[in-house]
Amino acid sequence: MLDRTHRLRRAGTTAAVAIAAVTLASCGDSTGPNNKQNALRPAGKYARQILNLTEPFFWIAVVIGLAVVSATFYVALRFREKPGEERAPKQVHGNTALEISWTVIPAVILAVMAVPTVATIFSLAKKPTGHVVNVTVTARQWWWQFHYDDPGNGVETANELHIPVGVPVSLTLQGPPACSPTPCYANGVIHSFWVPALNGKKDVVPGRKQFLKLEADKPGTYLGQCAEYCGLSHANMRMRVIAESQADYDAWVKSQQVATRSEAALERGVDAQQWGCATCHSFKPGTAGAVAPNLSHLADRTAFAGDIYLVNFDNLWRWVYDAPSRKPMGNLEQHMPNFSAAGMTQAEAQKIACFLLTNTATNPSPPPECAGK
Amino acid sequence: MTTVEDATTLVQVPEKRIRILERPRATTGPWSWVTTVDHKKIAIMYGTLALCFFIVGGIEALFIRLQLAQPNGTILSAARYNEFFTMHGTTMVFLLGMPIAAAFGNYLMPLMIGARDVAFPRLNMLGFWVFAFGGLFLYSSFALGGAPDGGWFGYAPLTSTPLAAGYLPGRGADFWCVGLIMLGIGSVATAVNFLVTILNMRAPGMTLMRMPVFVWMILVIAFLTLFAMPPVTAALIMVFMDRNFHTNFFNAAAGGDPLMYQNLFWIFGHPEVYILILPGMGIVSEILPVFSRKPLFGYSIVVFSGIAIGFLGWGVWAHHMFASGLGPVAVSAFGLSTMLIAIPTGVKIFNWLATVWGGAVRLRTPMLFALGFIAQFTIGGLSGVMHSIVPSDTQQTDTYFVVAHFHYVLFGGLVFAVFGGFYYWWPKFFGRMLNEKMGKLNFWLMVIGFNLTFFPMHFLGFEGQPRRTYTYPSGMGWDTLNLLATIGAFIIATSVLVFIVNVIYTARRGERASSDPWDARTLEWSTSSPPPEYNFAVVPVVTSLDDFWHRKYTEDDEGHLVKLPAGGADEAETLPVSFDPHSIHMPSPSYWPLIFAMCLPILGYGFVFKNWWLLGAGVVVGFFGLQGWAIEPSAEPEHSGTEAH
Fold first, then answer.
1. Which of residues 142-181 of A touch B (CB under 8 A)?
2. Is the whole-model pTM more than 0.95?
3. Which homologous superfamily does the CATH classification assign to the domain defined by B40-587?
């Protein structure tokens, strides 16, 4: 049988090896779940630039960490006083050479770290030039409003950002416009725009216009979400970026510029009209709703309500019927109301859902439930 | 000293005495605790209440972890979740971290410097009661219109916009502002008291560079508290005014600046981090030498590193704002200053390891916690250095990576140090040794639970999980790590339960402690366990660093430890025969700081509910309390008759 010291020492070694193994297994390039929201799986040059900067220092940190943790185990076990033993250890009060060296060595490591860090900071802060897509992002409580600023584009959408592959996208992040007359509140709080696979995050601060750039180098969907606590439904303020080839992107822009049947249909869509959807929403391409997402192409999007519900009949009518029960809104001054409390029936809500599915899509394919509605 | 004698004569005229100005006399029973000005009793009250809040904050954390154990959790509503994470953070920072430093500082600092009490005993009492009322005031919000739910750093304009806008559902932010301002008053009172005590009341020969590291760290945090509280108090007043009186400090639409709040908060908030961790470093610096039977390696560099951390702590606040859009120059500067602070921190870690190196290491429970501190704090420090790489930080900030980072510093660091401190000083506090077997169980459960909870969070952060989200969808690949973290949290809870059982067991059947059960180095071990009210029968005269140790041991020519023949004599044995404890002047108990402290929650409720009657009542109580405090006699005549000035 091993004696206590041996067992302890072996436990120490095992622990150190286990920590190392877990660390090694979980790091490196393209690691972690492929959840489309993973900073370890960059999909564009800015996110990759960050990961490339992080990685070497991460490994230095792992080595130093393992060294200190092992040293802690080592000194504890190596110098442990056995029961009954009375040692008279040498009284060392300090050692100037040692202390200077462990002041200077970390300083040198940090100085080495500082150079690429500062270089990367400035590189990421530089605005892209040449062929650039410009988008204004307005962070709302609790959804994302996207407006394409380039001449000839002007698309207005929500929660779902389409970008061309290999082209830098320059984002202007802002809070909602001030409302009037005061006192009124435009739901303007700090949010943070974060799509980990495409870049780090940048806060959206009311009263400021902030800059962030994205770039994807292969087609795909990349997820993101608000990263600065912004109240009740902070967790429900998600978004997706759809990167596609230049041709697909151009086609998408074109499709979004064309009015769907929604605006005209609104005139006839008695239910939608009666409940005043257009008071807050807009059904006209390129035009922002007063306070709520543009719905002209709602049915072209994958998801809605801060990218938390897929666009389908069931989700839509339940949302129209009683939105606050599907996404906590508290007593926010402006939010999608509970229409059921105002007398809307489920049948009416379903009719409105069908109205949206039929009239806000470029190529409508309403579900069977909508037949005859 | 004629003036003092005159004053005594004056109050001794019986017919002139006002009854309500008599000082309380109870020395036992609950009333003696309520009116006490004894730094040790105040410390025990601080510690007990802080531990209660630790348990409450821990229960909130368990609910948070239950909610996140799986995707789309339904244990808590969004509103409740937001209240719980806000109150968890607020509790652990303001109701555990700061008061536990006041507890250890209060009990130990006067003993360690050979003083009989702190400089201002009644101010000390005030500090405690303000903390108690402030904490209860904050928690009363759960029953009175909603608990704080804006996060522990309460960013404006989320918190500062009037209730009518509904950005946050309830009155929580009002309670939060007023509660934190209140707690700040208590903290500043205690800080001033500690500063004056350390600078003025050291025993003869106790020069600054002979003070234990723990006292040094208390001195540094007292300075930090004194200067950090004003900016946050200003920020909180502005938030409260924006919310309630339609000012526009942080309202961008009216020209206000939300980022100003962040600057004001973090210029408090970062020194605050060091206010929380430095006492832990102090505790560890006391435990390691005792259980290695070696002096602290490089005492002076450890002290100066602590001071350096204190100074540099003022120049790094914007590293909490790397994603706020400060511009490349500002974030570069703050990135570099943040790297800089790693140097003194690293020095401390290496010096601690060198202290243990070559020692006769006794792996008792306090030592285990101290060693756990070194390993875990190092991991937290390294992830902190990663934040200084600004572009990396823009991926890590506001994610679970940050949650992992600061829990490694504040739980793996501070809480481990505090538990080590409990096991180490319990015999001094209560005269009984905490049970060693339960202590080891407590330690190992806590190590396993802590690492299981927080290590996976590093990965969750990288993999895209933001903090402060009450729910996450399935299919993100975060399920397993979150479940592990939840299991770990319950293991931590079990370890705390073991500690509570240990405390109860020890109170009933614990082994009685001698005055110096660990063969320790500092002055608090030279007096009985627990110490008498007056701490030292004879004020010690100090001739060196670790003076008490050098009364017991010396070194031979090669530097090895040699026991002195008469070493370790108890103070009691060397007392002069004629010693009469009544001859020592100790401050009398008082009601007035308690009465004055009562005005704060009354005013607080008055402000939160805009109730003029309460505000008026608060002002009256406050004046009454201050007035009584000012004109209260220095001692009861019965007492002062036998007093030797």
1. 175, 178-179
2. no
3. Cytochrome c oxidase-like, subunit I domain (1.20.210.10)
